[in-house]
Amino acid sequence: MSTLELNKLRKAFGAVANPVVAVNDLSFTVADGEFLCILGPSGCGKSTALRMIAGFEEPTSGDVLIDGQSIVAIPPNKRPTAMVFQKYTLWPHMKVYDNIAFGLRLRHLPKAEIEKEVREALELVHLGDYGDRYPAQLSGGEQQRVAIARALVLKPKILLLDEPFSNLDALLRVRLREELRTIQRNLKITAVFVTHDQEEALSLADRIAVMRKGELQQLDKPASIYATPQNLFVADFIGAMNMFEGKLSGRSIQLGDLALPAPAGAASGEVKVALRPEDVAVTDAAGAWAGTVTQMSDLGHYRKVFVRTPQLGSLKLYLPKSVEVTEGGPLHFKPTRYLVFQGQDKPAEIHL
Ligand SMILES: Nc1ncnc2c1ncn2[C@@H]1O[C@H](COP(=O)(O)OP(=O)(O)O)[C@@H](O)[C@H]1O
Ligand SMILES: [Mg+2]
């Protein structure tokens, strides 16, 4: 049983008078056995947050608790955490076996036990025969597998990973993250995985913490983050989204001379309408939007279509392959679901 709690965690770098606030009042709880991804653009404070959990960075204020106990006063090597970094951080002069055994030797475990643990860890990451190699004799992916084994062998309560697969090519990245997820599920270890790659976060996480400029934007299951982003940043950052500026008055939203139903009881004024590419139906019904297909490509089981409309410019749509579309030809469609953002409020979700 291991839970992780961040409580108003803050880190300011630089002069007190003019600080760079890397992490600002970050609070969330990671449940026992949960795989949480921290997702956000470069520079938003992901690594700083993770480094404060690991103890490599001292918080300016706030607290980090594991199983309800504050750990901020504990030095990194004594914390029940282990970290895997983006850059391969194996000791080049040590064989794979010794790299993994290192932390256990520091703990003065009996030799036989170290041997057993290291062998098990090597099996876990599918490197059973690699113990005698040096890091330079391994590919990038194999080195990261060793780094994961080296972290797991310490039996940390919380496993921390900072963009561990970002240096690998796309195919290997996908394979290693699937392997990692399987291992994490089997061991039921609580994990925090930092990434700027939304696809990685969406495919790995039990829940995603979206960050921007040091602050938490939304913490939710991947499907909820995708379906109902709680602010414009998350709407724009996660997945493809068509965004329109509109004017709400009475019961409708005007987008140029196109209209959409407004949320019940909404105040008049400027709004932003967010439409996912797949949330449209192709139809000739009255009131359908009309455009011209400017580009299309078949992506496996669906079709990506760019359609130019006189009122809204170019829209990106994902359509089933059963819909007949030709480049340069007309397309009539209607939104089936959209989000309406007004000021800083949470969006209203409309289904038609
Ligand atoms: N040691 C440091 N000194 C000063 N500023 C730092 C330091 N480490 C990080 N920062 C700043 O804090 C912000 C967050 O950085 P970081 O946590 O590395 O972001 P991310 O991992 O999301 O890319 C950035 O503006 C970065 O320049
Ligand atoms: Mg980083």
Structure description:
The protein has 352 residues and is an alpha+beta fold. Helices cover 24% and strands 37% of the residues. It has helices at residues 46-54, 96-106, 111-124, 140-152, 170-187, 198-204, 222-227, 232-237; strands at 4-13, 20-30, 35-39, 61-66, 69-70, 81-84, 158-162, 190-195, 207-212, 215-220, 242-249, 252-255, 258-261, 269-275, 280-282, 289-299, 302-309, 313-320, 330-335, 337-341, 348-351. The strands form four sheets. The chain has a six-stranded mixed β-sheet, with helices on both faces. A six-stranded antiparallel β-sheet has the order 13-12-11-14-20-21. Strands 15-19-16-17-18 form a five-stranded antiparallel β-sheet, with no helix packed on it. α2 (96-106) runs parallel beside α4 (140-152) and α3 (111-124) crosses α4. The two termini are 45 Å apart. The mean pLDDT is 96.
Write the layout of secondary structure elements.
Elements: E1 4-13, E2 20-30, E3 35-39, H1 46-54, E4 61-66, E5 69-70, E6 81-84, H2 96-106, H3 111-124, H4 140-152, E7 158-162, H5 170-187, E8 190-195, H6 198-204, E9 207-212, E10 215-220, H7 222-227, H8 232-237, E11 242-249, E12 252-255, E13 258-261, E14 269-275, E15 280-282, E16 289-299, E17 302-309, E18 313-320, E19 330-335, E20 337-341, E21 348-351
Parallel strand pairs: 3-8, 3-9, 6-7, 7-8
Antiparallel strand pairs: 1-2, 1-4, 4-5, 9-10, 11-12, 11-14, 12-13, 14-20, 15-19, 16-17, 16-19, 17-18, 20-21
The chain binds adenosine-5'-diphosphate (ADP) and magnesium ion (MG).
